[in-house]
Amino acid sequence: AGLKSFSSTSFFGSVALLNVLDRCDEPVSLLRSLRDRIAVDSGRLLLAVVLPFRPFVEDGPRRRRPRECLRLRPDAPWEQATTELWEKVLRPMGFDVEAVSRLPYLSHGDARVPVYALDDAVFVLKRSSRKDVYDM
Asked: How does strand 95-108 pair with strand 115-127?
């Protein structure tokens, strides 16, 4: 992620990460960096994730698994996948949820299907003040 170009003392009031996490090579590191860069009391992260979660990284002409793994079931129904993302990833990493919604996400298709209609989970998150936070 390009966050390294910002000073470690730079904080943001809001950050949007929209449909990136499932194509990111290091999703844990990215979420940790974003958590640490949003302002403690007033900062918010708008996170949109296609669920169920089926990550891969496009590496030239081939697809491969990300270097970092979010242990989410790729076959979970949307509701369960949303709960897993919250309980296994976002909450333990130090986020509190203010809102979550299900929205349609239309993605460009391929040779077989012109458009894919997918389901997004959209979270409004803030940094947690809990003491039981741990990094994955």
From this structure: antiparallel
CB 105 within 8 A of CB 48: yes
Is 51's pLDDT higher than 80? yes
Residue 1 has pLDDT above 50, yes or no: no
Question: What span, in angstroms and rounded, lies between the C-alpha atoms of 15 and 44?
Answer: 6
Residue 48 burial by CB count (10 A; 0-12/13-18/19+): exposed, middle or buried? middle
- pTM for the full predicted model: 0.88
Query: Looking at residues 41-56, what average pLDDT do you find?
Result: 95
Return the sign of the alpha-carbon dihedral for residues 109, 99, 101, 63: positive
Beta strand ranges found along 1-136 (DSSP E): 14-18, 44-51, 57-59, 62-64, 95-108, 115-127
Give the whole-angstrom CA distance, residue 97 versus residue 78.
17
More confident residue, 70 or 133: 70
